[in-house]
Amino acid sequence: MTGSDVPPSFRLAYVPGVIPAKWVRIWQERMPDVPLTLSGVPAAEAAAGVREGRADAVFGRLPLDRAELSVIPLYVETTVVVVPKDHLVAAVDEVAVADLADELLLHPLDDTLPWERPPGRPAVERPASTGDAVELVAAGVGLLVVPQSLARLHHRKDLTYRPVTDAPTSQVGLCWREDRTTDLMETFIGIVRGRTVNSSRGRPTPPREKAKEKPKARRPAAGDPRGAGSAGRSGGRSGGGSGGAGGRNPRRGAGGAKPAKRRKPRR
């Protein structure tokens, strides 16, 4: 089988916490003959996977290295701190970064949340993965600051999480290589943007041309020689019939009176 004989397919990658189910379902409805394959990738490898051709597109977390990539930002995730259920933070509805000043924060290597250590606070630990970090939180080693979707993904009965109001946030976006914007890619972009099936892949439909109107007849200006013929004709009609000059009836006399009737001679 040659390369041209290979049936088309679309490879979609996504980082942990992102749920692409609704977009996949719409793809299957609109493109039943083109299979879509899904693969999970670590957040730190999302851009590289698309750039190196291991996927046609990826749902990744921003910011990321956009070199050679096109990106459509989609939604911003809430940042939360994961804590044991008996921790003081669990007693409040939300916290600020200052409330975590004395805590050891865990920042997994597979996450892209831009978290910087404020002066005077303990160093940020870098476990290998979010799963490893969750285990350390449960063991009482430290706290974990992550997007809310990851806290839900790694939910445990002995842990909870609270929003961090002023922490850095991350945004989920659709990424693909600029030089590989194929027809299938355009179709998926349309699905993600919520376009209908009849929207021509987002290209604006040219407006319909208006029917050409017939030019209106222009009334000749006064003194225009082109109007003399029509004026004369109309004058003849309005002058009282189809007679000659001055609109006189040829059966009438010069004064307009009827001519006398001729009498038959008596025998």
From TrEMBL:
UniProt lineage: Bacteria, Bacillati, Actinomycetota, Actinomycetes, Kitasatosporales
Protein's name according to its UniProt entry: LysR family substrate-binding domain-containing protein
Compositionally biased region (Gly residues): 229-247
Domain LysR substrate-binding: 22-194
Top-level taxonomic group: Bacteria
Transmembrane segments: none
Entry similarity comment: Belongs to the LysR transcriptional regulatory family.
Keywords: DNA-binding, Transcription, Transcription regulation
CDD domains recorded: PBP2_LTTR_aromatics_like
InterPro entries, per database record: LysR_subst-bd
Species assigned in the record: Streptomyces chisholmiae
